[in-house]
Amino acid sequence: MSELHRFVVDGIIDPAVTLAAFAEKVGLSENEAEEFDRRFFDTPDGRLHADQSTLEVRNSVEFPLMCSLVWLKGGQVLASTRVESGFSPDFADSLPSGPAFDRLRELVEMRRLLPVATVRSRISSGGHLDSEEKTTARVHIDLPSLPDGQPLPALIEVRAVRGYEAETAGLLRSMRAHEAFEPSDLSTADFAREMVGAGPYLPGKLSLQLDASASADAVWRVVLRELHDAMIANFRGTVDDIDSEYLHDFRVAVRRTRSVLQEGRGVLTPAARDHFRDGFKWLGDITTPTRDADVHLLDYPNMIGALSPEYGEALAPLHELLLSRQRTCQAQLALDLRSVRRAELGAEWAEFLAGEGPWARTTPAGSDAAPDASRSARDVAAERMERAHSRLVRDGRTIDGSSEPEALHDLRKDAKRLRYLLECFGSLFPAEDLAVAVKPLKSLQDVLGEFQDTEVQAHALAQFGRQLDVEGASTDTILAMGGAIEQLSVRQARARREFAARFESFDSREVESAYDSITGVGPTKSKKRKKKNR
Amino acid sequence: MKILATYNIKGGVGKTASAVNLAHVAASRGNRVLLWDLDPQGAATFYFRVKPKVKGGGEALLSGRRELADVIKGSDYDNLDIVPADFSYRHLDLMLDDAKKPLALLRKVLSGVADEYDYVFLDCAPSISLTSESVFRAADALLVPVIPTTLSIRTFDQLDAFVAENPDIVRKLKIMGFFSMADSRKRLHRELMEELREQRPELLPSQVPMDTDIERMGVHRQPVTAMFPKSRPARAYQSLWDDIVERL
């Protein structure tokens, strides 16, 4: 799809007058403007915002009962349907059926759609036409205001129709040259959010840009602060169980924190490091039952999909059980997250990261207790990565068809350790080497994850089956669960078969060179390692 | 991605109108649709107001010098794109004849956009030629409009014979015949349709009527399903699309 171009219209003169004059000058075809009350929705991490599209429930002001759900991108309707007045989308399964909304479902995944802004807009859509009266660019003009009447910037969105980018370039040049038009990255929903003081969307990936010349002590703290911010950003949503990804992202931040603490040997003093490692282990542990329950529910549609339809129906009692377990685990998690212990850990950690409090005072840079603290962060991180990479390669090479499942589970931990190092400290190293290093590692992790997750799920299902049997579940339900366990075994066996090829890709010469380049290991040391390990 | 070709050995049976309107109906239901106008006359291209020109012509596409994705033009309708006709398509047979695996070539060219579209419509010129054989190999289904006249039905029989004699070319191709330009006021049409439905129960249940609204497509340069979505022919195309999806 072509690039979307947005312009705001200078509000000194009436924007509608400016727009009308411009439309006439460049020969825009324009449909009659309509007025709508619009409620915008997005996921907590702003997936629609990132996609440059918007999802809205709009009511015609003239016909208030005409209510539509519209997924829009730069004036192009990606999906739309009539909905009941007052409808609000929620999770992906609340969206209407059909292929267009299926694509929205893929974008939203497991996240919840939340209301993000409400505006009243006067909208007209039009096009820039060629000599055949063919639309070459779609133009979407929006004169919006907040519900209290406060005006928002008038916005024009222009998108070239595919194959007509060159024809649209002229229109865009005229718009850029127009004194009343200012290019903008924001949509009407963004302006409305900004005006009411809404915060940013939840960050997705870590976006650390570390200073390669800084000391290890300083860089470790920058990383830990970023992870602390991620924990804080996801805390409320985790307690309130808005969707499963708040907890997922909270856990990822906790696990990365534990990993950075683990790799902080010699950078942080042992006392502080041990204290917080214990604290974050506890914090991670209390989130595990709820995450497991979430995973069962998230995987439920796959489980049903792999069974014949009649078995799918028979699994309804299992679904009820999974929902009930998730509610119980979540209630306990909310209590634990509101506990004094968690609050104390949070306060101590914030203090430590600010360089205050008793734990911070135990970390003098360059002391015997923290000999690596004042060294270059890049050197220290490279050493840690080299060690993690060597270990993963060494352990992976020992695995064959007869290895115990535990060997693969341990290898998954090795892989995670390396991945966290790359994610947290990667910006200290050349991006091109990182790209080569991360891709096969991720692919290896996927297959190791599938291997372990299917095993854990199969064990859990067997346990749920026994519980449902005791509670008097029907034979069909127990049989269906047997079928589901069988499917998990099939998936696990497939993952095991795929392991060798994935590991081979990871253990290739090209990938090893990328790791050598990141970690600064010269060919001599690399050759020695190969000899030693192979 | 499913590939559907509107095809008949005989011309003037409503192939292009079917391709244009079915593509529009499919897109209006939220599917991502591409229509490739393979007929050098370029009628489908004309209906969508696109200029009938492909840079480098058909040869550039078939030789791989130009990717199909680079010549696609967006239509005025959401989710519906066009590969325009080009006058060079009149030599498609010669171009295919020069290629290494001519029958597989069209599908190979289309594979470059397989992730972008749910349905591709190929609007073919009437004939049995290397181009149509390549279309048979590429397509998942052949949509065959049949006018209820003796001559038109004869050409349907010819297609049947070709399919029976060339299983290596058609492979798993589904043949979906349907009545087009049907005039229920004409006794001959009524009788032939009744007779043929008995002989060929596999014919799609929906039929497209002879209607002046379809003829107006040339004036308005729009699909009838966009111009007059509640009209009789528009409803016929919508119903026909439902039949096709069910058979796919």
The run of helices and strands of chain A is EHEEHEEEHEEEHEHHHHHHHHHHHHHH
Shape of chain B: globular
Distance between the termini of chain A: 49 Å
Distance N to C terminus of chain B: 12 Å
Name the chain pair whose interface involves the most residues. A-B, 17 and 19 residues
Quaternary status: heterodimer
Radius of gyration of chain B: 17 Å
Tell me, what's the shape of chain A? globular
Q: Segments of chain B where pLDDT lies below 50 for 5+ residues?
A: none
**Arrangement of strands in the largest sheet of chain B:** 3-4-2-5-1-6-7
Radius of gyration of chain A: 28 Å
Biggest sheet details of chain B: 7 strands, mixed
What class, by secondary structure content of chain B? Answer: alpha/beta
Counting H and I runs of at least 4 residues, what is the number of helices of chain A? Answer: 18
Question: Could you tell me the number of beta strands of chain B?
Answer: 7
- Share of helix among residues of chain B? 40-55%
DSSP strand content of chain B: 5-15%
Sheet-strand content of chain A, in percent, reads 5-15%
The main sheet of chain A comes to: 10 strands, antiparallel
Verbal overview:
The complex is a heterodimer of chains A (534) and B (248). Chain A has 534 residues and is an alpha+beta fold. Chain A is built from 18 helices and ten strands. Chain A has helices at 15-26, 47-50, 99-108, 165-177, 188-195, 216-240, 244-262, 270-305, 309-314, 316-337, 340-353, 357-360, 377-397, 405-425, 431-470, 475-506, 509-519, 523-533; strands at residues 4-9, 28-30, 34-42, 54-60, 67-73, 76-82, 114-129, 135-145, 154-160, 181-184. In chain A, strands 1, 2, 3, 4, 5, 6, 7, 8, 9 and 10 form a ten-stranded antiparallel sheet that branches. Chain A starts with a strand and ends with a helix. By secondary structure, chain B is an alpha/beta fold. In chain B, helix 1 (15-28) crosses helix 13 (232-247). The termini of chain B are close together. Chain A binds chain B through residues 76-79, 98-101, 127, 132-135, 161-164, and chain B through 29-32, 48-51, 71-76, 78-79, 81, 118, 221.
